[in-house]
Amino acid sequence: MSSIAESVTAAAPRVPIPANGVDYRGKIVLAPMVRSGELPSRLLALKYGADLVWGPETIDRAIIGCQRQVNPRNGCIEFSRMPSNGGRPDIVSKESVIYRLDPVREKGRLIYQMGTASPELAVQAAKIVAADVSGIDVNSGCPKPFSTSGGMGAALLRTPDKLVSILEALVREVGEPFQIGISVKIRILESPEATEALVSRLVRTGITGLTVHCRTTPMRPRERAIRHQLRMVADVCHKAGVACIMNGDVTSRDHGLALMEEFGVDGAMIATSAESNSSCFRSEADGGLAPWRDVVHEYLRFCIESENRLGNTKYLLNMLIPGKNEEFKQAKLSRTYTDSCRRLKFDDLVSQAILLDELLDLDHKWELGPPEGHPRSKAVQNVMANNESAKAAGGDGTRSKATSSVAHKGGPIRTSSFPAPVKAEPEQAAVDPSIPAPMAQKSEVAV
Ligand SMILES: Cc1cc2nc3c(=O)[nH]c(=O)nc-3n(C[C@H](O)[C@H](O)[C@H](O)COP(=O)(O)O)c2cc1C
């Protein structure tokens, strides 16, 4: 813990931190972010000095029914299920990894965030992951209709009885038996009085921490965070012995530490600044912001190690690589890990990327051709040959799905990201018109 945080919190009473839990005090943490908060991004944040990482919000019903498996290739724990396919039994699908974590590198540092509007479902969902994480956080701040229409996220700010009952149920039925902390992430309300009344109730539920996003529900992300309620929220938390983390326009570790001192809060949470350069968690004294190429190299390494879904990897690459850069344009064109690494000249990652492309059934998409000394497998060659014959016979040679002829080399493999409420699909705009038709026209196959 930093000396600043120690001096801020020394006199405060404390809700005891459970044996398998973690104290939020003195911590600069990675915010929960759907899409941007998958395992590789969390490992990246930890590498650059984040003290704790929040996983992306996962809806209670999405994790309920998942099987827990250890991936034999990398030791990651994967919670997977078969997709429902909208009830259509005719669609053949692969198992989806709903949540993936690294039990070694995230040990003692991962907080699982859930979206819920029901104490029963919240408890059921939390029990599935509780033994593998250090805390469970309830998202009570998401303003998007997909969340609020189901009574989740920011809707809970308007139904405090329900929010309190969810937190109490989690503390009693998950926090105590599993000995982990329960926490909540809220937004400020329009008036300090309304926020104070809400926070006063929440801190009496047995939670160990509360994060306050210093924007109201109607505020857009680009509007500057407002901090005039922050000291009051921290005071209410401290009187009850609950750690208070601030969130909203925190740009770096040093900035977070300065704000903690200024507003008397216990920790600071960073979202969008970490999305664009996760080395913001490194203090100036330790080197400050790293060049984007270093960050992207490490990010791709973590993606490959954790077998991240390519669509998700490319989403964050779009954030991490500066837009005007020529390598950015190049990387956007890549449709495989191998091509991404080759276009970015990360030669040391290529051999691992080849293996992952084969595993994820992407190797038939190598746009730069098979890497030197690595001819396409016979199955892939057959598919390509069939395409050529189809073209010669007047067809367009396009395969609707590229999985049929290529041997699958083991699983479980992520086939889709769920939930995926953030709509932006930057990689879709990245199809290179110069790619031959069979590749360019195909929709992204499941990876
Ligand atoms: C891409 C993205 C996804 C997000 N997903 C979540 C989420 O799953 N749960 C949540 O509580 N907040 C989510 N948020 C909100 C952030 O956690 C954070 O509260 C907000 O971005 C303000 O922090 P900042 O000013 O540092 O960006 C998301 C934000 C972004 C940009």
Automatic annotation (TrEMBL):
UniProt keyword list: Flavoprotein, FMN, mRNA processing, Oxidoreductase, tRNA processing
Domain DUS-like FMN-binding: 51-298
An MF annotation (GO) of this entry: flavin adenine dinucleotide binding
Region feature Disordered, mapped onto this chain: 389-447
Any one of the GO BP annotations: mRNA processing
Source taxon at top rank: Eukaryota
Keyword Metal-binding recorded: no
Cofactor needs: FMN
A Pfam family that the UniProt record links to this protein: Dus
Reactions accelerated catalytically: a 5,6-dihydrouridine in mRNA + NADP(+) = a uridine in mRNA + NADPH + H(+); a 5,6-dihydrouridine in mRNA + NAD(+) = a uridine in mRNA + NADH + H(+)
GO CC annotations on file: cytoplasm
Protein role: Catalyzes the synthesis of dihydrouridine, a modified base found in the D-loop of most tRNAs. Specifically modifies U47 in cytoplasmic tRNAs. Catalyzes the synthesis of dihydrouridine in some mRNAs, thereby affecting their translation.
Name of the protein: tRNA-dihydrouridine(20) synthase
Originating species: Penicillium atrosanguineum
